[in-house]
């Protein structure tokens, strides 16, 4: 038996696009997690098992493994298992667009991050020093 340790002739870091459309193209936007749906996600579904509650809210900032991103159609038609309740959290229209305060806070954070860090002040020798053993006399006394 002969094993080849040579690398493949060509390696591509870009996704393959097949004419049949499978696998789907890689995109920067998040898509609906329902099978056969390629619509953009607009809401995130999370299950709270302890309370038997399905929580459907605005699209989460980060995609997490225990949440499900849904498109507008699937978020409207979403139903919970029998005996469970559905909590729909609608985004506050006033918080969708950044406010003047948000922009000022962002500008302040950028300014703070750009400031040089002051060097630590050294006020003496290093913190390490030799300590005589307990059973020997102190070298300073005779």
Structure description:
By secondary structure, the chain is of the alpha+beta class. The chain has a domain at 43-113. 18% of the residues lie in helices and 14% in strands. Strands 3-1-2-4 form a four-stranded mixed sheet. A hairpin with a 4-residue loop joins β1 (43-48) and β2. The longest helix is centred in the last third of the chain and has 15 residues, at 100-114. The protein is elongated, with a radius of gyration of 30 Å. 8% of the residues are buried.
Brief overview, please?
With 142 residues, the protein is α+β, with helices and mostly antiparallel strands.
How is the secondary structure organized here?
Blueprint: E1 43-48, E2 53-58, E3 67-70, H1 72-77, E4 85-88, H2 93-96, H3 100-114
Parallel strand pairs: 2-4
Antiparallel strand pairs: 1-2, 1-3
Proportion in helices:
10-25%
Going by helix content, strand content and strand pairing, the class is alpha+beta
Roughly what fraction of the amino acids lie in strands?
Answer: 5-15%
Number of strands: 4
Strand order of the largest sheet: 3-1-2-4
Largest sheet: 4 strands, mixed
Task: Report the uncertain regions.
Answer: 16-27
Average pLDDT score: 74
Head-to-tail CA distance between termini: 81 Å
Order of helices and strands: EEEHEHH
**Total helical segments:** 3
Label the overall shape.
elongated
Rg from alpha-carbon coordinates: 30 Å
